[in-house]
Specification:
By secondary structure, the chain is an alpha+beta fold. It contains 4 helices and 3 strands; from the N terminus they run αβααββα.
Length: 115
């Protein structure tokens, strides 16, 4: 019997915000498009659930890092599109710096060669 969440990778706290901001660097996008960009950009490893995505988007909007507006999708449906603000771009730079520090620290520990 296989475990349904066996290969699921949990995101570290705060990482979802950084990923959303990164996707929005590429242009405005609706929620489903953001989730798809994260999924496809991670080689299907990271799958963001709706219950995590929309609260994160609302939090980012409240912080002033993203802005939203209602538009028509390519399929002529009404959807809320999110875009990166100048403050969001600045926040992304700070998040990327912290991420790089943490990644290097973890890699240094994991690559010591002792198992």
């Amino acid at each position: 019997m296989s475990k349904p969440y066996q290969n699921r990778i949990e995101l570290l706290q705060g990482t979802l915000d950084m990923l959303i901001l990164q996707v929005l660097v590429w242009g405005t996008q609706h929620g489903y498009g953001i989730a798809q960009a994260i999924r496809s950009g991670s080689g299907d490893v990271l799958q963001i659930e709706t219950g995590s995505l929309y609260p994160a988007l609302h939090r980012l909007e409240k912080q002033g890092w993203v802005k939203s507006e209602w538009k028509q999708t390519d399929k002529n449906q009404r959807a809320k599109f999110y875009g990166l603000t100048a403050a969001g771009r600045k926040q992304l730079t700070a998040e990327q710096s912290r991420w790089n520090q943490m990644s290097a620290a973890i890699a240094g520990l994991m690559n010591r060669g002792e198992v």
